[in-house]
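User: Let's play a game. I give you a shape written as tokens, and you guess the letters that built it. Ready? Here's round one.
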């Protein structure tokens, strides 16, 4: 069962998402909150698998809420998905840097919304290749991470290769095909890289891969 926390200051938005999620046999909404402060408290109480968090809220916004969830060891298994009205922008990028696994635009189709919740619950990043390109072009190349290249030296050659392929938007199955290994081995390489780099999820691997120079914009 996928346990979901909804955090949004608009009751109508929360009710709409809850109505969709409540129809699914494998998803349970464990709590709702109207701001980040309340959402953080409920996250610590219910330990959800997914926290769907609005990026702009009163009291505590989605970026700070994400940062606090990411810093809390008791919430290590909680994947944050940012909700936004505007698509990819600087607020979303800052949320990704804070530890979010990805983002969803609120006018998303219901089927795509449910699919995305399940993808995030598996620990995969909600970053399509087109979004990754925007991430790189608009923000990553402007905000280098001085320690990223040093951290990558802790990886084995195969782990570095796997991280580079994650940064190009490939799934575990595609990475396995490219590296001529099993999907399970690909997943293991990625998991070990995340552990060594202290990355919560694949979205942070993407940021680190480009900020360190492991992957250069335009690589394919």
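Assistant: Ready! My guess for every position:
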């Amino acid at each position: 069962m996928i346990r979901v926390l909804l955090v949004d200051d608009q009751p109508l938005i929360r009710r709409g998402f809850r109505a969709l999620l409540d129809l699914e046999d494998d998803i349970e909404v464990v709590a709702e909150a109207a701001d980040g402060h309340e959402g953080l408290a409920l996250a610590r109480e219910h330990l959800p698998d997914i926290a769907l968090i609005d990026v702009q809220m009163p009291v505590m916004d989605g970026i700070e809420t994400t940062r606090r969830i990411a810093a809390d060891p008791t919430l290590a298994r909680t994947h944050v998905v940012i909700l936004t009205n505007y698509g990819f922008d600087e607020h979303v990028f800052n949320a990704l840097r804070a530890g979010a696994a990805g983002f969803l635009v609120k006018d998303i189709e219901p089927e795509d919304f449910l699919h995305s919740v399940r993808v995030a619950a598996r620990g995969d990043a909600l970053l399509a290749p087109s979004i990754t390109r925007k991430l790189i072009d608009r923000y990553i190349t402007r905000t280098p991470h001085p320690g990223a290249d040093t951290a990558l030296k802790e990886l084995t050659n195969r782990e570095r290769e796997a991280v580079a392929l994650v940064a190009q938007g490939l799934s575990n199955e595609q990475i396995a095909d490219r590296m001529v290994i099993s999907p399970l081995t690909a997943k293991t390489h990625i998991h070990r890289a995340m552990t060594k780099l202290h990355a919560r999820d694949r979205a942070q691997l993407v940021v680190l891969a480009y900020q360190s120079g492991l992957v250069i914009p335009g690589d394919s």
